[in-house]
Amino acid sequence: MVYRLSAADAYRKYLVKKIEVKGIAETKTMASDGYIYVERICCSESDAAAVIQYDFKMGSGIRKQYRKVGIGDDLYEISGGLEEYQGGFEVKQINRQEESVEFVNGMKLYAGDINGKVDEEQIRRIQIRETILSHIDRERRLFGRRIKVLSLFFIDEVARYKKYDETGCPQNGSYADIFEEEYRNIIENMKYGPGDEKYRDYIEMIPVEKTHAGYFSIDRKGHVVDSKGKGKEMMSDDQDAYDLIMKNKELLLECDPKQSPVRFIFSHSALREGWDNPNVFQICTLKNGGSEVRKRQEVGRGLRLCVNGDGQRMDRSFLGQDVHRVNTLTVIASESYESFVKGLQSEIAEDVFGKQSRKADVCRDIEVIIPENARSRRVELKVDQEKLNGEEFSALWSNICLKSTYTVNFDTEKLVEDAVKILNRELHIQDMRFKGKNEAAKSVVKYDLAGKLADMTGLKRKTVIEILSRVESSVFQQFQESPEEFIAQAERLILNVKETAISENIIYHTSDEKYTKDKIGPDDVITVAESVVAITQGLYIRPEDLKISHMAQFCCRFIPDYGSLATPHGMESLMIKEGHFRVAAGLFIGFLAKLVGKSGVFYRIAGRQTALIDDVTGTMPPFDKSIVYGPENTKEVVNNLKSRLNCFGAVIADVNDLKRSRIVDVTDGCNGQMVAKLLIDNPFGNASQKTPIAIIKNFKQYQEQNS
Predict the structure, then answer these.
(1) Model pLDDT for residues 432-474, shown as the tens digit of each residue
(2) Spatial separation of the C-alpha atoms in residues 445 and 448, rounded to whole Å
(3) Is there a domain that residue 74 lies in?
(4) Which domain holds residue 667?
């Protein structure tokens, strides 16, 4: 008996990583052959911008360089007058939603597209750069979780990574040189935000020549060679390469850069050398088409769920619903996303179902694991105003606009009884036996069964224990044979019972309050909590990432207990932003000023962030564990809000539980003081109020009547 776990089953059970693809495609247009590569669209910018690579004329010749361009930028001018960009290469539009750049000549390129003449080396350079960018992005996001991020390059010739001179001394091949050039360029131009101090130190500790390594077969001279070597010159075969790689696997997962600086790995073959690692998050194939190694086999080298610095597997029991948010494998392909997916689908279908499989079966099962397009994560939502204002929708809205609450009151004992019945009846695990063996495979891993099921189902641990204690011994015995499958099935069955109990016992209570159909109109004002704006700008830091100075410990004692600066962490975060001596001097002068009856001096001297910082108690989850700075470019933010929403005005405000309301910024024509007074007595705020955005209806008329 052979237990069969298909690719789709493994994905459904959260046993493997989710796949996303960054496609790099050559695009043929009717325009001239001017070289352009669209790397990315800058979505965080207030004005639309795109990072592109283009040809630039220098005194010594033509070289390729990257630059951020906006609407109106002309490539002919910024290239130094290259003829290939003459006539229509002015940026006409940048679309953030569809990640595209359109030029005056009608040419439209999407992120990842290449226009113009390009050789293989340039394609490989772009692939390597994209891999480094994806690596850095994921590494920054997972750094706080102590998860070592690795990237894997597959190459078709070892000499392209490492070669030897006449004396036998190793030298960089072309791929290694390209990697080091692009890595230095990215690191030198990388911007760090608040909270990135430890990550910046981590990066600065790793020399570029030490952060990449190759794993290949070795000949009798100790030189790395292709796995396809023949004859007596090969001292080792692929098994030796496998041993060489595997003995360093645990070291590669070490987060300390002094012990393990390697983060990028070059390998010759996906199959022959048999290397994989759970913390591979990026796979880049630097190979020509028609490779003997199929796409799914290369991708399979990075599908295992990752582990943290303590060796704990980041599975569903550890991460819950975030398992695929953390465990995502990015494939950097030298083809379009559509082409890659089509090829991968057919290969998986053939492997899983066989060549004679029915098309319907293939489509239904493969659809589950179709890779995402890493370059198209946003969708533009549009409202059809004609339908919104139609009679049919108005009639529907009148029936659903009433606000309501609900209560659920089901019998816990009945839930336990129903859960026991369905577990005894439907929990059945196939006997997991392997060909050539007579004994069942038994797990030696220890599980907190009750704890896992309690976390997965949302039930109390006591309730789960009660259910398990009543399950028949023959059913419960299956846990010893296959714990993970037992837990997965038990979770599904118990959740089914729970959902049925909720649906049968839910009671809705309507109120007289109604939801408004037209959320914001031309006479309304949109108000946003200042810390929410700051969070969207990345202006926050976790307290555990701060190194508290003696000065911060001393100065915080002079701040009232209710203030965000009353803690050493809050004070240290301010000093990092405004300067230790400036804050200390402001505190001292402010103290002296209070002696003569002047207040507010400390806040004027110590800097703008003094009044804006929110400590860990002042922000709604998940940022209630962070210190949030004040927002930046506030005038641009409010103007953009007003423009995008077509409303009377926009306000960034700071309202707290102490009946204090302060306007950080406001659009012209809108009376900020009136807004502040209205917000004081309303549930506006992002702490216990959990209302970080509020709309003041018909404020224009209110302002005119009370001016």
Answers:
(1) 444 444 444 444 456 688 888 888 888 889 999 999 999 999 9
(2) 10
(3) yes
(4) 525-706
